[in-house]
């Protein structure tokens, strides 16, 4: 399907469906009539094969207690092998109700109060919240923004921060929300070797792993240097971003090391007594085994790419000094309006003039990002045109 056909088949007006993004604007904004480009979910129905699999199951079975379905485990293992050249062992798979809960349980299992946790900023704000809610200081190591607006790491700054703060856990994000960078194997090798040298546990959030349309392929942390760091890594993922099913409560937590896995599962059993969510397992199995789901994903990425290219070309034509980062992964555009808008005017301009609900840059690491916005492009081109035109109309060179 081309992008126009995909949109006419799968786009859905979500207003009135209790969608956090559309109907929950009062949670973060002063108005409720904005075009929402904030929460990271999509305005598209998931592939029909997933819809059908869920409907078929609920029509044929009660939703009684279930055990983990081996077909689901096979589907996950097969997906990682086929899509990411990553060989998982069945034993490594455990779970959480979602990725952030999995990260919170790792923090509880592997750190004590006041143990430091490192992140590379700007980064998804829930990492910070998970650490600070558990009274663990977050050590923000700012990435460098290069001339081409790509982000990179100063490894000696990273290592110095790890040593200075005696960091115990590093939360890595690949592809990186919000800057859209897909980390290369070499970059991860350098980062992880620093972690290894200083006994730092790596949590790799790979939730955006399938949303890669740029030139760099996604590499799971588990496969870096032929698995050299796998004993020291916990990866998290789910189908929630790739197939727009974030309300399903299930994430894969992959822990190759047996001791770490035992510690995680012990911590999990203190607060959670369910092994499997049958609807999530049905959805995941359908998503990871039906060719139709993979085609849907390919078509979706083409829509997101078209939206990104449209927005970039129009915005840069009108506002050539904008700094837009390459979106190699995710469906989130990271744009710095600092050449045109003062930090203190950003909220007023976006909310009251442009009529857009963006994710504001400061949500990803504080005031240094106050002139940035993150815009969610997983919507119709029509919505992207409205947002783009409105920015051009209200932001002046
Ligand atoms: C990098 C990253 N991790 C985790 C999440 C949230 O995942 P979950 O709903 O599974 O907790 C998001 C959502 O935007 C995200 O971008």
Question: Can you walk through the features of this model?
Answer:
By secondary structure, this protein is α/β, with parallel strands linked by helices. The chain has two domains: 148 residues, Aspartate Aminotransferase, domain 1; 224 residues, Aspartate Aminotransferase, domain 2 (3-Layer(aba) Sandwich). Helix content is 41%, strand content 15%. The strands form four sheets. Strands 2-10-9-8-7-3-4 form a seven-stranded mixed β-sheet, with helices on both faces. A four-stranded antiparallel β-sheet has the order 11-12-15-14, with no helix packed on it. Helix 1 crosses helix 11, helix 5 runs parallel beside helix 6 and helix 12 crosses helix 13. The longest helix has 28 residues. The chain is globular and about 55 Å long. The model has no long low-confidence stretch (mean pLDDT 96). Bound molecules: pyridoxal-5'-phosphate. The site of pyridoxal-5'-phosphate has 13 residues, from helix 5. Pyridoxal-5'-phosphate binds next to helix 5.
**How many DSSP H or I helices?**
13
Count of distinct structural domains: 2
- Distinct small-molecule ligands in the complex: pyridoxal-5'-phosphate
How would you sum up the global shape? globular
Q: Could you estimate the helical fraction of the residues in percent?
A: 40-55%
Mean pLDDT: 96
Task: Give me the CATH fold name of the largest domain.
Answer: Aspartate Aminotransferase, domain 2
DSSP strand content: 5-15%
Organism: Veillonella rogosae JCM 15642
Keywords: Aminotransferase, Lyase, Pyridoxal phosphate, Transferase
EC number: 4.4.1.13
Domain Aminotransferase class I/classII large: 66-387
